[in-house]
Amino acid sequence: TVGRWALGGVLVVADLIVVYQAGSDTAVLGLAAALVVAAIVVPAVRWWRRREGSAAVLAAGAAGVAVLAWVGFFTFVGPITRSLGKDPTLSDRRIIWSYLRGEIDDRPLRGFGFGSFWDDPERVSPIYDLTKSISGSAHGTLMEVWLGLGLVGVSLLVVLWVQAAARVGAVVWTGSHVGTSLGVVAVAVFVL
């Protein structure tokens, strides 16, 4: 087990160096959140298993915590980033997301076609007016998929996320895989 911890430590340090070198506050935030998830989820699952708790109850609790964390993030990201002296718009992402929610309302079920929205100058020019920069993406997987593929695409994406989380959850639950913590981090980064 010492070798696993050493490998995990080396990988975490390498991730931190790469993310820091990228100079992206959102990348640092995402990695930090993923590490927190791994640090909490793996020990919590192991504790729950020792108490012979139900996997279904644990999964439902984890889903509830994930939803609360998601809502909490978007509720408090502005004040938190502002208090840290960072850009509360997350480099204009929040402005873009706000605008795109209105555009998604025009075609909520089927979207605009993958990538097609960004090819329409009439739809994209208001983003430039709001941010004074050219954006070729929504800067968020969920928003980009909803914009391009509508609710149908979002539904498929959520199924993919749930399957990934369930598979990693099964590995964590059984404790049968060397990369348990790394798997949790990978899924957390992917979903975030």
Can you describe this structure in just a few lines?
The chain is mostly helical and 192 residues long. 77% of the residues lie in helices and 0% in strands.
What does this structure look like?
This protein has 192 residues and is mainly alpha-helical. Helices cover 77% and strands 0% of the residues. It is built from 7 helices and no strands. The longest helix is centred in the last third of the chain and has 34 residues. The radius of gyration is 19 Å and the shape is globular. It starts with a helix and ends with a helix. The mean pLDDT is 81.
List its traits:
192 residues; mainly alpha; 7 helices; 77% helix
Helical proportion, percent range: over 70%
Computed Rg = 19 Å
Low-confidence stretches: none
Outline type: globular
The counted number of beta strands is 0
Strand and helix layout:
Blueprint: H1 2-22, H2 25-50, H3 55-83, H4 93-106, H5 121-131, H6 141-174, H7 180-191
Helix pairs in contact: 1-2, 2-7, 4-5, 4-6, 6-7
